[in-house]
């Protein structure tokens, strides 16, 4: 099989060839049909998260090993199954849930494999879909996509589940108050689309790039705001008629988190998803006095993936723009994303 691997942090991915694995036990082998290029791949590729103050959180310290085949947004066709893999057969097209845990600890048994202390996430801690084949340890990670086009279904594995998980944390105000979404890249447009599918009241989208703000307006945002404006927080407060009940920050930079905190109404909630990096100082009395919540949101559970696919079956697949590229163009695709040139999502089609 062929794959494009990170062999050295930040250096171009290298074409590797190795024997195609034969599934044993509950394993399932897929031929990759679509592999989304996600923004978090840029962090994995570079090898660190910026944690503010000039400090870095290294991914190798979190257990990421090189060489690594990235790619965690995958749709594939089943080409071989292990003797104990039940419920799938050769020829099935499946979306791969990549947020694997050990499957055995209390956290995993509760259904929150994404929070397992020994994560095995596909494309992060084990080989992903920037390849022609992908080995999945158990059929429970495979989801039927029905007639959905593979390149539109693939982004549901990360961008979809991540924004769905964040939107669920908004709670009951989702249907009653506009939500503020910071960032109108692939994640932002996915969030906007799922917000509508979930019966959301309206969305105000914040992005520094006028092209991305325009894309957000076209995708149904009720208002868009430029965060570099000196009165950006005031604009958000006005657009939400007194302050935001919920801000989903898909960027997660010092400035965006600060802007979000400045825009919250009493009782409001900030949900941080983005991994841009930085740090903030918050006066502790503002938590009780303003009764605010700051919550992190990281991907989602197998149950949430099933819910998301059910939502998509009922309401249609999110209509974010998708551009396809051959697998061999993975380095160009990553560089396009890094340069901020991508509207919507790039998907590799091996
Ligand atoms: Zn576990
Ligand atoms: Zn991702």
Radius of gyration, in angstroms, nearest whole number: 20 Å
For the sheet with most strands, the description reads: 7 strands, mixed
Return the structural class. Answer: alpha/beta
Q: How many E-type strands?
A: 18
Share in β-strands: 15-25%
User: Order of SSEs, N→C?
Assistant: EEEHEEEEEHEEHHEHEHEHEHEHEHEHE
Helices, by number, come to 11
Which runs of at least 5 residues are low in confidence (pLDDT < 50)?
A: none
Q: Which ligands are bound?
A: zinc ion
> Distance between termini?
12 Å
Write the layout of secondary structure elements.
Elements: E1 2-6, E2 14-17, E3 28-37, H1 39-46, E4 48-50, E5 56-58, E6 68-69, E7 73-81, E8 93-96, H2 106-109, E9 133-136, E10 142-144, H3 150-153, H4 159-170, E11 179-182, H5 186-197, E12 203-206, H6 210-218, E13 223-225, H7 232-239, E14 244-249, H8 254-263, E15 264-272, H9 286-290, E16 293-296, H10 302-315, E17 322-325, H11 330-338, E18 345-348
Parallel strand pairs: 11-12, 11-14, 12-13, 14-15, 15-16, 17-18
Antiparallel strand pairs: 1-2, 1-6, 3-7, 3-9, 3-18, 4-5, 7-8, 8-10
Helix pairs in contact: 4-5, 7-8
The site of one zinc ion has 8 residues, from helix 2.
